[in-house]
Amino acid sequence: MTISQDARPSTTDRHFGPGGPVVQPPGDYRDGMTLTRLDPQTGTAFLLRAGQRLTVVDPTGEQVSDFFAVMDDDRDEWFSSGRTIDYANSTAVTTGSVLYSNRSRPMATVVEDTCGHHDILLTPCSQQTFDLLYPEFEGAYHPSCFENLATNMAGFGVEPDRISTTLNIFMNVWAERNGELHIDPPTSRAGDRFVLRAEADLVVGLTACSAEKSNNGVCKPVDYRIDD
């Protein structure tokens, strides 16, 4: 797997947190919507009822958001990237795509996508990710999407071992013919959105991704909202 190390965007608002460089968006960007903000390298969990819509917005551009879900009526039924890929015969997720569970039930449908590039192949970053792929951190603690998902979903009775491959919204992953994967900077721009409609009652975990190299070197916030 090759991770792009393009130049980081210049900003006067950059500061350095425990996981490395992060940046706050200028002003109070909301794109005319009432949204909840996830700070850089954080996550949340919530119930999403059948028929409700989850809108995920990239307020600054080039920021990934990891999504995972389990069925509210059975924590052993969880989002399966493998089933989703099988039934679509595609690794692309965009408007019209259906997310399936490990038991082949529809969990959510993508109803709007203004970016067009998302990943369904890679697992959420974890402490082991940084230990293995970020040798410059020398094994130091680093916030991770797995930790943020596990910590927040635990309040809904979701065990860490139930958290599998995530839908990595806005993540730009592509493969060469020989199978080698590349992680390039997200193509999302400020205000791009990704909207899911729940097809069943779900427990959802959502993050503002903690991996610098997945977000063009700088960890940024993610906005979201739930609509009936």
UniProtKB/TrEMBL annotation:
Question: Coiled coil where?
Answer: none
What's the superkingdom here? Bacteria
What single Pfam family name could you report for this chain, choosing any that match? Answer: DUF1989
* Ranges of biased composition (kind: Polar residues): 1-10
According to the record, the residues making up region (Disordered) are 1-29
Q: The DUF1989 domain covers which part of the protein?
A: 37-203
Q: Could you identify this protein by its name?
A: Urea carboxylase-associated family protein
What is the organism field in this record?
Terrabacter carboxydivorans
